Amino acid sequence: MAFTLPPLPYASDALDPHLSQETLEFHHGKHHQTYVTKLNELVGDDKTNADLDDVVLGAAPGPEFNNAAQHWNHTFYWRCMAPAGGGEPEGELAEAIAKDFGSFGAFRKELNDTAATHFGSGWAWLVHDGSRLLVTHTSDADLPLRHGQHALLTIDVWEHAYYVDYRNKRPDYVSAFLDHLVNWDFAAENLRQV
User: Fold this and answer.
1) Domain coordinates of the chain in residue numbers?
2) What CATH code is assigned to 91-192?
3) Which residue, 56, 126, 168, 185, is most buried by CB atoms nearer than 10 A?
4) pLDDT tens-place string over residues 166-188
5) Bond from prior residue into 144 cis (ω within 30 degrees of 0)
6) How many CA atoms lie within 13 A of 5 on its CB side?
């Protein structure tokens, strides 16, 4: 066995016009696949996607960690989007956001600002830290798992996630993600696992 690239949870054109088929084919089929291929070269074929958390947590900083974490991050990211996503969450997630941020509007502004202003390559996250929800960000391949946090949602802010469609206008990509793509059902499912 070996690590494998999971299929997208929707067709490669399903997020148009907010993320193009070209973006998804390059991002998923090229960038994500490269992380998987390199990870298999580094750890051998005896590990599978089921072992990914252990590899991420056990790897020293460097190529093994970077490729394992980017495989984890991207596998998670694809599920954070859905055709006809966006809007506001409901139920327990909406209640937790209101409790920990004061309002959905305050939460959205914090996540939007964090994603839009993160310097360089990285990720903006909604996490549960064991006691409450937080918005945070990580650089490069880093992820909440390494910091004892439970990820609920992420926005990929590496340029390859949006450059074909938005060029250097990361704030426009972040707004489109929040308005039209975010999969609140997946975030709510993650909250139930805390």
Assistant:
1) 21-79, 91-192
2) 3.55.40.20
3) 126
4) 999 999 999 999 999 999 999 99
5) no
6) 15
Q: Are the beta carbons of 86 and 178 closer than 8 angstroms? A: yes
Q: How far is CA 176 from CA 15, 86, 155, in A?
A: 10, 8, 11
Query: How far is residue 20's CA from residue 164's CA, in Å, rounded to a whole number?
Result: 8
Q: What is the per-residue pLDDT for 1?
A: 84
Listing DSSP states for the chain in one string gives ----PPPPSS-TTTTTTTS-HHHHHHIIIIIIHHHHHHHHHHH-SS--GGGHHHHHHHPPTTHHHHHHHHHHHHHHHHHTB-TT--S---HHHHHHHHHHHSSHHHHHHHHHHHHHH--SSEEEEEEE-SSSEEEEEEETT--GGGGT-EEEEEEE-SGGGTHHHHTT-HHHHHHHIIIIIB-HHHHHHHHHT-
Enter the tokens of residue 60: 């020293």
In this predicted model, what pLDDT tens digit does every residue of 77-115 receive, in sequence order?
999 999 999 999 999 999 999 999 999 999 999 999 999
Task: Please provide the average confidence, as pLDDT, over all residues in the chain.
Answer: 98
Percent share of the chain, pLDDT over 70 = 100
